[in-house]
Amino acid sequence: VNSILLSCLRSMDQVKGVLTLQGEALTQADINLKTAKSNQVMHFTFRDDKHWKLQQIQDARNHVNQALQLLSGRDESYHFKTGAEVNKLMDAVMLQLTRARNRLTTPAAMTLPELATSGLMKMFTPPMPGDVMVNFYINLSKLCLTVYQLHAMQPNTTKNFRPSGSSVLHNPGAMFELNNAKFEVSQVHKVECVVPWLNNTLVFFTISLQLCQQLKDKISVFSSFWNYRPF
Ligand SMILES: *[C@@H]1O[C@H](CO)[C@@H](O)[C@H](O)[C@H]1NC(C)=O
Ligand SMILES: *[C@@H]1O[C@H](CO)[C@@H](O)[C@H](O)[C@H]1NC(C)=O
Ligand SMILES: *[C@@H]1O[C@H](CO)[C@@H](O)[C@H](O)[C@H]1NC(C)=O
């Protein structure tokens, strides 16, 4: 997982912005939100002193490093003695590569209170108003930004309050309680942009896993010869 500077710009009616992804960290964010309520455009940036680490990329990189350590754990002159020994190494490497890939293809599900109290809400200047929440995640080769517009539910509301569970993406109508106040998601905006090096990374994971599998297949072909001893 390389460290490359990327700026992405996506424009939609409600959410526009520029994000800078440097390796695993979002180093800059410049977001314009148009709220349905006031039709005003609000402008937020990351505080100068803040970077937001994307846990998914960090985890993927850690798994790749573990795979590399497994591969470089032996001296260059080391000779594998059995096919089983190679298979065992390939299985361990493939496990790490699969985990790395899964981290990029499976964004974390979160509850709305978890989102509301996440450190991400403290990243912005000016601070996000209480009725707006944002989330960043990686989905395959895309960096996604979701913006939730909330409204406070009146204590005397006749609506049935049902808190929603964990989800990557919450729908309008989802409800949650925080500090004895009840909220409902009134609008959801999702914007996403392709990160080319993430796309390449996913392709490399697929190729690496295929190579490992091919090596295992070859060993299994040869071991059937080795096991066949006619004399
Ligand atoms: C992730 O990407 C897939 C494929 O483009 C899409 O079907 C899915 O809805 C996305 N999920 C989220 C949570 O963004
Ligand atoms: C709930 O109370 C608020 C003020 O406290 C009032 O404006 C609103 O009409 C009430 N709603 C219902 C459904 O009774
Ligand atoms: C993703 O990478 C593959 C292989 O490198 C390439 O063929 C494809 O066009 C890329 N897609 C995007 C959206 O960049």
Automatic annotation (TrEMBL):
It holds the Pfam family Rogdi_lz. GO terms for cellular component: RAVE complex; synaptic vesicle. Its main location: cytoplasm. InterPro entries: RAVE2/Rogdi. It is found in: Cytoplasmic vesicle, Secretory vesicle, Synaptic vesicle. Signal peptide: none annotated. Belongs to the rogdi family. This is Protein rogdi homolog. It comes from Salmo trutta. The lineage of its organism: Eukaryota, Metazoa, Chordata, Craniata, Vertebrata.
